[in-house]
Amino acid sequence: MSEPEKSEQSKRIHAIKFAAILSVVCCLLITGASTGLKSFQQANRTLDRQKNILRAAGIVTLDAKPSREKIQSLFLEKIHEVEVDATGDFMEAGQGKGLSLYLYKDGQTLKAYVIPVESRGLWGKIKGYMALKADGQTVAGFTVYSHSETPGLGGEIEKAWFQKNFIGKKIFNAANEFVSVSIAKGGVEALPQASRDNYVDGISGATLTGKYLTQGLKKNLEQYEAVSVRLRNSKGIADE
Amino acid sequence: MSDGNLTLKETFLRGIWKENPVAYQVLGICSALAVTVQMKTAIVMGLALTVVTGMSNLIISLLRKKIPSTIRIIVELTVIASLVIVIDQVLQAFLYDISKQLSVFVGLIITNCIVLGRAEAFALANPPLPALLDGLGNGLGYGLILVAVAFVRELLGAGKFVGISVVPQAWMDAGYAHMGLMVLAPGAFFIIGLLVWLKNSLPGASHEEKTGQ
To answer: What does pTM read for this prediction?
Structure first.
């Protein structure tokens, strides 16, 4: 009489044992893979960020696929990382006192400056770079290297067709006020002529992504306004 | 166990052609729509899925006598999920650009019905070698359809073959335009639909013949 009960119980114990062993084995496997490959992944991410800085600055085109060596050498040669304080003065990078900024220099002349952009998105953070030309108001380029928007909709922000539209836009309006660059709802053609320079074409089906990214861009650019204003008034830039 | 009389070769080839997971079983359509804009992502996705189905079938077949039947679906999913995470990590380490393009779809292999379907339907009841071949065959069958769809979509939608432009400039000058529909999801629906129809209307591969077998 106790026979079937016992086997029922031993079955259950077997199931629990099996589940426990399987969990431990799978845990070890996943942990092993993620820690073992971490250094490779880190290197890839750094390289990807460098590539996006180069793309934003317009040193390589948005759809170019430069090799690893090319990215590293271009980055070393043309990009200088600095920090900037509230008044727009440059400091040595790595002090952690100011905001991080990347300068694109050709020899000694400043061609553009690249601002790291971190914005809220619909599903998660959107991270990228916006480069402004040395006149302090014209967008040289915009790139996104990390986001969790819906592929095909908000995810289009990482595509060249969308990012291309930022090139040549202005962050100041005709009345000389800081307005940032906004993502229009629909096409730019629908807007009055005067404000077209401050808008880029929106993505259909991604109104919210556009809205959050617009807010994020404004917030990020505002923090660097001191630099932009300085350059616009061309008082020159203190050499770091 | 009804598959016991199949030879190893038949087991392998069945998934690729006759019982192709996309064209015959109509599984894995979601990812087939998503990653077939370019040949490159389609190939990587096909290979990734082949590795996952092959390995999961092999592991589950090896464990098939030990797996308690009460928790077998959870066990299968745990094995599949672990494999997918490992593959995702490998892609991030060595094929970063492609891993970015595939974005969420690698993770979604876990929920791809083909993987769980083969584990449930074949691996649980068959020895390791046929199970491995069955998994690989089904993965390759899925990859085959993906590549075929991506070939048409990339060619018509962007005028490219594996990223290389093949439409001559003279055509473009003469007014040739890329077919925008092909880049969007509806384009994939049409191509997959046509492929299923084409495949099932070929002799020896139709639905009717199969059921009469």
So the answer is: 0.76
